[in-house]
Write a structure and sequence with these properties.
6-stranded mixed beta sheet; alpha+beta; 26 helices; elongated
């Protein structure tokens, strides 16, 4: 029977060949998208894991054999250029056996550095006094892909002598390069600091991959399922005729499975070709805020095996399931027996998914990241399954209501057809309904997060200010035994440095914060509540500033009338708590009793430089501050914009993820809709041609087709969008700790545009209606 099935597929006439090609093309597109989505999740994992060595020195590695390994002095800092983050590693090997970071052949010696290709290009294209002068020595090589998360990563590894790093703030001795991201076990062993570029935390990567699976894989799988059911009704009729001619159930099953597997195998091979064509363009998409290396967009042997075996097997199973009515009653299929109507129990999975999310809202207790990911992932998965399961019942109810309230022939025909087979009607629009739900959740979640960030973050200061933090008075993590910390910088060289900064074109003001470890400011006026809104305010560590200097930077506040010295928050504390973004321009700092002449004898806590916001000025100031040997900074000089960009980086990555999911799922849903509508028309050639012969006008048939597509689309889409809002409200309460915020007009335009495009896709099938309703069709049938 398998040989007969192959012969029928190949020599079954023009219709059989056309059916085979259509099935293969549909499966090929679905498989290509499926492989691309799977490879993209692998690329996200590889991108994240490539950040592991960035965490070197940030946590205590588990005890292990370090025999014969010389210590390596290690210092990780962040840097930036024009808001582009740069990750900087300063290291000093104590012997040839010191560990070597990935991507470089050996540890750089004093006066040498390795840089990523993107940073090498930036260094070459940028004036030296704005960037290259920050890095001592000369370039000796580029960092290979093994040491970089992305082709756009800006990373530099600089060599020093052990004596230089031993006296540099933040340096630590290590005997191994970190090989994994810190997780829950490592956190218990003591997280001492965090690199500027951390990747996605362990819980966040699970959430990211879950979002990809639900948002991209689900529509793709629906599209593949739709493709494997093309011409299902015609196949049922052919196999029913075979059963009436004497074929056994087993023989018909083998023929059906053979036909579907041949098309699936052909589509599978073409799908792998589509994947390799899409691989390079997809790798360039900043899926998590950065593009991928094309080699990381790869498939594991298990991925290949699962798709290569699963797709043909699924096609065969789908064909067998589609023949249930043939197996039970071949004569009934030949006479087009109406299937049983869907029951109301189909809404239970949807209600169960909403109830699961609602349980965690009512529980009102915080969850761990892992538990939250599992709870939200399972809840959203159940809602997605619930929408698919409940769709046919909702379609049937809508069709019955429409039939009761109309007397127009086209509306009655469409309503009766929808009521007779709501499963087939919903199947065509299921992908778009799912995409609308996913898009609603993504957009509402981002809108809520943006609103939360705006309430928590401050408005930036009126003028861009470059700040160089010189004293570490607010250590957040327990420092390891051999980590070097620092106090205030020396007082004497400040005048020379300020004179150098003042000569830079575009510098508008200078403010030196002098150290006074006993001085504090009340936290209330500054809005500093360390335990969250509504909790008691805490004192803020403060230093001393000259009122004459403060007057040159109005964005940072002012002194009381007649004062010469004022208390000012230490910039290290201000950077960590966000105090410099609460609208400091309107604050009056309390006067201090210290004489202005005494300020020059106090150590320097930080230096603030107001600029004209031009990139050359900001970056030249940053370079001068980093190059000041008498003032070893805790980190790179920063602007308030840098802090905002750093705080927003994770949100930007998730926003990019959500946009990608929306932009991918909607076109896939459109393909599913087009395939479903076209397949439905092909399966109903004879009824439509008979209606034409009985006098039905083509315009009426077009209205029937439009209603059969538009009614389930609009009905279930309304439920999907409403469910998306309900699920988003529960998600906001559980995961975002903020009331849900409705999106702006752009979201509703997006939804309306998607529906209009969908209606356009339905209308695009009208020319096919002309071709399949001629009198010759009824005669040939």
């Amino acid at each position: 029977m398998i040989a007969l099935g192959l012969r029928l597929v190949i020599s079954g006439g023009r219709e059989a060949v056309t059916r085979l090609v259509v099935l293969a093309v549909g499966v090929a597109l679905g498989v290509g998208l499926l492989l691309t989505a799977v490879a993209a999740t692998n690329a996200v994992t590889a991108w994240n894991n490539s950040h592991a060595w960035f965490w070197t020195g940030s946590y205590r590695e588990p005890a292990g054999p370090a025999k014969g390994v010389a210590p390596l002095w290690w210092n990780t800092t962040g840097d930036s250029y024009d808001w582009q983050p740069i990750t900087r590693f300063d290291l000093a090997a104590t012997a040839a056996s010191s560990p070597v970071p990935p991507g470089i052949p050996r540890d750089p010696g004093p006066g040498q550095y390795y840089a990523s290709p993107a940073l090498v290009t930036l260094l070459r294209d940028t004036p030296a006094d704005q960037l290259a002068d920050r890095y001592p020595g000369h370039l000796v090589g580029t960092i290979a892909q093994a040491g970089l998360p992305s082709p756009d990563s800006l990373v530099i590894v600089i060599g020093h002598t052990p004596a230089q790093l031993a006296s540099t703030p933040g340096s630590v001795r290590v005997t191994a390069i970190a090989s994994r991201l810190p997780g829950r076990v490592l956190n218990r062993q003591g997280l001492t600091s965090a690199p500027p570029d951390t990747g996605i935390p362990s819980g966040g990567i699970d959430l990211t991959l879950s979002a990809v699976a639900l948002g991209v894989l689900a529509p793709v799988l629906i599209f593949i399922a739709t493709a494997t059911r093309l011409s299902a009704a015609r196949r049922e009729q052919r196999f029913a005729a075979m059963r009436l001619a004497g074929a056994s159930r087993r023989q018909v099953s083998l023929l059906a499975a053979t036909e579907s597997m041949v098309a699936a195998i052909g589509g599978l091979a073409a799908g792998f070709g589509i994947f390799f064509l899409l691989r390079i363009p997809v790798a360039s998409i900043p899926f998590v805020g950065q593009p991928f290396f094309p080699s990381t967009l790869a498939l594991s042997p298990s991925d290949i095996a699962a798709v290569a075996i699963g797709v043909p097997a699924a096609a065969a199973v789908a064909a067998l399931l589609a023949l249930r009515r043939v197996q039970i009653s071949p004569l009934g299929v030949a006479r087009r027996v109406t299937p049983g109507p869907p029951r109301a129990w189909r809404v239970l999975p949807l209600l169960a998914g909403l109830a699961e999310l609602g349980f965690f809202v009512a529980r009102d207790r915080p969850l761990t990241v892992s538990a939250e990911t599992k709870a939200l992932g399972s809840g959203f998965a159940l809602i997605i399954v619930g929408l698919i399961v409940a769709g046919p019942w909702l379609t049937m109810i809508t069709a019955r209501l429409m039939a009761r309230r109309t007397s127009h022939p086209s509306t009655l025909i469409a309503a009766r057809r929808l009521g007779d087979d709501p499963k087939a009607a919903f199947r065509a629009v299921s992908g778009l309904v799912l995409a609308l739900f996913i898009g609603t959740v993504a957009v509402v979640g981002l809108t809520t997060q943006d609103a939360k960030d705006q309430t928590q973050s401050a408005s930036p200061a009126a003028a861009p200010v470059v700040t160089d933090q010189l004293a570490d008075q607010t250590v957040s993590y327990p420092s390891p035994r051999d980590r070097v910390t620092t106090g205030p910088g020396p007082a004497a060289p400040a005048a020379a440095l300020l004179d150098q900064l003042g000569k830079i074109p575009g510098v508008q003001g200078l403010l030196v914060v002098r150290a006074d470890p006993k001085l504090t400011l009340p936290g209330g006026p500054l809005g500093y509540t360390p335990n969250g809104p509504g909790t008691p305010a805490a004192p803020v560590p403060a230093g001393l500033v000259s009122c004459a200097q403060l007057a040159t930077i109005p964005a940072l506040g002012r002194c009381p009338a007649g004062a010469t010295v004022a208390a000012f928050p230490t910039d290290g504390f201000a950077a960590q708590s966000g105090l410099l973004g609460v609208g400091t321009a309107g604050l009056t700092w309390p006067a201090a009793t210290v004489p202005a002449a005494r300020l020059d004898s106090l150590g320097v806590d930080a230096i603030n430089v107001a600029t004209n916001d031009s990139v050359p000025t900001v970056e030249t100031v940053r370079t001068v501050l980093e190059d000041a040997p008498a003032y070893p900074a805790i980190g790179t000089p920063y602007t308030i914009g840098d802090l905002v960009a750093q705080d927003d980086s994770t949100d930007d990555a998730y926003e990019q993820l959500a946009n990608t999911i929306i932009l991918v799922s909607l076109p896939i849903a459109g393909c599913t809709l087009a395939a479903g509508i076209a397949a439905g028309l092909a399966d109903r050639k004879r009824p439509f041609s008979l209606l034409r012969l009985t006098g039905a006008r083509l315009a009426m048939l077009r209205r029937v087709v439009a209603l059969e597509g538009a009614v389930p689309l609009l009905a279930v889409a309304t439920v999907a969008v409403g469910t998306g809002f309900a699920a988003s409200a529960e998600f906001a309460s559980v995961a975002q700790d903020h009331p849900m915020v409705a999106p702006g007009p752009g979201f509703y335009l997006l939804i309306g545009g998607a529906i209009v495009v969908s209606l356009g896709i339905i209308a695009a099938t009208f020319p096919l209606l002309v071709r399949i309703t001629g009198p010759e069709v009824a005669r040939n049938e």
